[in-house]
Write a structure and sequence with these properties.
There is one protein chain. The protein is α/β, with parallel strands linked by helices and about 775 residues long. It contains 29 helices and 29 strands. The strands form five sheets. Strands 14-21-20-16-17-18-19-15 form an eight-stranded mixed β-sheet. An eight-stranded parallel barrel has the order 22-23-24-25-26-27-28-29, surrounded by eight helices. The protein has a six-stranded antiparallel β-sheet with strand order 9-8-7-6-12-13. It folds into four domains: about 180 residues, Dna Ligase, domain 1, CATH 3.30.1490.20; about 120 residues, ATP-grasp fold, B domain (D-amino Acid Aminotransferase, Chain A, domain 1, 2-Layer Sandwich); about 110 residues, Phosphohistidine domain (Glucose Oxidase, domain 1); about 290 residues, TIM Barrel (Alpha-Beta Barrel). About 55% of the residues are buried.
Length: about 775
């Protein structure tokens, strides 16, 4: 039989051939659009330059290692808590990475494929060229406006240039800062959607749940004249329509202020044109109902609230983007009554809930962001995604223009920063140094510092409010649901979710934030061990207090050398390894050098005196002897002498399935399966390699066999088992397999909690129903 060489991975694919299951190849935007097109919804046709194209370009230029190194430098400058001197290097570090991408340029194979695919769309048709990152527009993160998009691009050469610009944009300061905020350490995968342009007379956004109050019985539509970028960028205050989802039925209309629109010019490119003041609303009542109806069809398709971008030409409404709403678990319940007009300085649109006070800092441009001090109130004409590095340091945000669905409002909600947009005169009414309180629930900006508003009772249809009632509002499941966490700043919001505790507290991310980007070993070498313990204990205490009395499982630092060389001092303490993913990391690292582990254990002991629900977990355990040595270090520490300490072990290496009975015999009281690393090592697939992405499958029977063995052993020996990874939040059938295996709990990212709880409840009901049917079948 003749052997055939494997088919080369396509660098371009038709949008109509894409499904949600292709998200790792075409990114969130491409996968969502392809699914809508397949479902028969009105989506303009197009193509996708796959994520493999950027990797191919970098590889062809011989730049992967240099790109990875420079990207780590940029991430280190963007990390939350990094010293000012390090933060100031962000722009330069990002420029270095972007220059590498531009130097690589499109490889010849991409040029050929794109030329053919673009010609199939028509005679040099105008298209929108839009970034589509893997992980973007998902249930976990929006990446709203972080990466570049271009409209009215014509000709294959111009499209290729726009593709390279999209590639470069993923390394811009705003995008790097967003990934650093989320703790994403890897070089991102980026696809690019090339989609036929709609000749937009009107455009906007629709949310199938109120993005501020969380009400799921409401649809919010924002609309403006011309193309939709003026809405999503916050450049104008759009018309806003609130509809009852039952119908849908129009409830209220808020007229915005729009002086300019973006349209296609005579030369084929974008141009601005004036909008006549005092004209009719952008949408009639029937048209607002039609847009809401389209958005609800998208929600019905995906089974969860959606953020939809739409455009209308002279004939019909089109859908040009859809993504899950990422912020409903963090929003407030019904807003309190607005302050009397005489007691407020400004009133605008409540865009991100919460109340915060601080000194005003008026800035006109993202380039001035370094002037913003931590905890000040950022006041700006508008806040597009370029403001991301500054926004996350702000106590609150106030803008002159923008609507509640603009990109910056979405990012503010993801960051948990209160925001009021569309005040129209914020930059002139407020001045530097004024002390104000920004109420993101009512849209008020008040003079002076005020105490936080008392929470109001939830309105019908709202998301669960932060507080004790949130857990009782969710479905009760026999399988525990925990949350993965790394940022103390998100502890309160995560603790308000219906979860049973923290199943994975990532020490390495906690450490880098607590230590301001400095390598812990460098601090130890400088005699600053006490500062490491103090900083780590402070962060731990914040999280433990938020979740008490629920358990918090702290995974000790799993330092991979390639990730941590980018920290200040890291090049001194981290060796260069050919394969750091299976190198000096996890348990064996503590055995070779226990200095950092001893400081972690000291911080844990200090916090656990106040919060005894804190447990310790050892990552990446390969053999019995190294675990025994590590457990001895724990037992010899102040933490090990405390009563009731539960010692967990991560199951990331397949050898755990063999050694687990002996691990439990050594005193291990819980096992948590790290599905990403376990899949990598069972299948022999580098999980960072896009060329092997079609082999990486957490549900491969070989991987499931190891998981089943671990869970079965844990059940037999009476210790809890858990799984932390991405699969439970993305694949309901995966959750059902874990339930059938008898796993004790799963642990997911905060944004995935509602979907995972529903999947757990559905799986448990199905298992119980099948058991009842079997019982009935054998009954006389």
């Amino acid at each position: 039989m003749t052997a055939h060489a494997p088919e080369r991975t396509a660098l371009v694919t038709r949008l109509g051939d894409v499904r949600l299951s292709d998200v790792d190849r075409v990114g969130g935007k491409g996968a969502n659009l392809g699914e809508l097109l397949h479902a028969g919804l009105p989506v303009p046709d197009g193509l996708v330059v796959t994520a493999a194209a950027l990797r191919a370009a970098v590889a062809a230029a011989g730049l992967p290692e240099e790109l990875d190194r420079r990207h780590r430098e940029a991430l280190a400058a963007a990390r939350p808590g990094a010293p000012a001197a390090v933060r100031d290097r962000l722009a330069a570090a990002c420029r270095d990475v972007q220059q590498l991408v531009r130097r690589a340029g499109p490889p010849p194979a991409l040029v050929a494929e794109l030329r053919t695919a673009y010609a199939a769309l028509g005679q040099a048709p105008p298209v929108a060229v839009r970034s589509s990152a893997v992980g973007e527009d998902s249930g976990e993160a929006s990446f709203a406006g972080m990466n570049a998009s271009f409209t009215n691009v014509s000709g294959v050469d111009a499209v290729l240039a726009a593709v390279v610009d999209c590639w470069a944009s993923v390394f811009a300061p705003r995008s790097v800062a967003y990934r650093a905020e989320r703790g994403d350490p890897d070089v991102p995968d980026l696809a690019v959607v090339v989609q036929l342009m709609v000749t937009a007379r009107r455009a906007g956004v629709a949310f199938t749940a109120d993005p501020v109050t969380g009400r799921r019985d409401r649809v919010v539509v924002e609309a403006a004249w011309g193309q939709g970028e003026v809405v999503v960028s916050g450049e104008v205050e759009p018309d806003t329509y609130v509809l009852d989802a039952d119908g849908p039925r129009l409830l209220t209309v808020h007229r915005g202020t729009q002086r300019v629109q973006v349209v296609r010019g005579p030369d084929g490119g974008d141009r601005t044109a004036p909008v006549v003041a005092g004209g009719p609303p952008v949408l009639s009542e029937a048209e607002a109902v039609a847009v809401a109806g389209l958005a609800l069809r998208v929600q019905d398709l995906h089974g969860r609230p959606q953020d939809v971008e739409w455009a209308a030409d002279d004939e019909r409404f089109w859908l040009v983007q859809a993504r899950p709403v990422t912020t409903l678990g963090q929003v407030a319940p019904a807003p309190a009554a607005a302050e009397p007009a005489g007691e407020r300085l400004l009133h605008g649109l409540a865009a991100s809930p919460g109340r915060a006070s601080g000194r005003v800092r008026v800035l006109q441009s993202p380039a001035d962001g370094s002037r913003l001090r931590d905890g000040e109130v950022l006041v700006a004409p508008l806040t597009n995604p370029d403001w991301m590095p500054a926004m996350r340091r702000a106590a609150a945000v106030v803008t002159d223009s923008g609507g509640v669905t603009c990109h910056a409002a979405i990012v503010a909600r993801e960051l948990g920063v209160p925001a009021v947009v569309g005040t129209r005169t914020g930059t002139t009414t407020l001045s530097d140094g004024m002390e104000v309180t920004v109420d993101g629930d009512t849209g008020d900006v008040l003079p002076g510092r005020r105490t936080p508003a008392a929470p109001a009772a939830p309105a019908p249809g709202t998301a669960a409010a932060p507080g004790a009632t949130s857990a009782t509002a969710a479905e009760i499941t026999g399988t525990g649901l925990h949350v993965n966490l790394a940022d103390p700043g998100q502890a309160q919001a995560a603790a308000a979710l219906p979860v049973d505790g923290v199943g994975l507290l990532r020490a390495e991310l906690l450490l880098t934030r607590a230590l301001g980007g400095r390598h812990p070993s460098e601090m130890i070498a400088r005699g600053e061990s006490d500062q490491v313990v103090d900083a780590l204990a402070g962060s731990l205490r914040t999280i433990a207090r938020a979740f008490a009395p629920r358990p918090v499982v702290y995974r000790t630092a799993d330092l991979r050398t390639n990730e941590f060389r980018g920290l200040t001092g890291g090049e001194i303490h981290e060796p260069v390894e050919d394969n750091p993913m299976i190198g000096l990391r996890g348990c064996i690292r503590y055995v070779h050098d226990p200095s950092l582990l001893r400081l972690e254990l000291a911080a844990l002991a200090r916090v656990r005196e106040e919060f005894p629900g804190v447990a310790v977990m050892v990552p990446f355990v390969r053999t019995r002897w190294e675990l025994e040595a590590c457990l001895q270090l724990i037992d010899d520490s102040p933490l090990g002498r405390q009563r009731g300490l539960r010692r967990w072990v991560m199951a990331e290496v397949p050898s755990v399935a063999h050694w687990l009975p002996e691990y439990i015999g050594l005193g291990v009281g819980g096992v948590s399966i790290g599905s990403n690393d376990l899949t990598q090592l069972v299948l022999g697939v580098d999980r960072d390699s896009a060329d092997l992405a079609d082999l990486f499958d957490e549900a491969d029977p070989a991987v499931l066999a190891v998981i089943d063995s671990v869970v079965s052993t844990a059940r037999r020996m009476g210790v809890p088992s858990s799984l932390c990874g991405q699969a439970p939040s993305r694949r309901p059938e995966y959750v059902e397999h874990l339930v059938r295996a008898g796993i004790t709990s799963v642990s997911v990212e905060p944004a995935a909690v509602p979907a995972t709880r529903r999947a757990l409840a559905t799986a448990e009901r199905r298992v119980l129903l099948e058991a009842a049917r079997r019982t009935a079948a054998v009954s006389p």
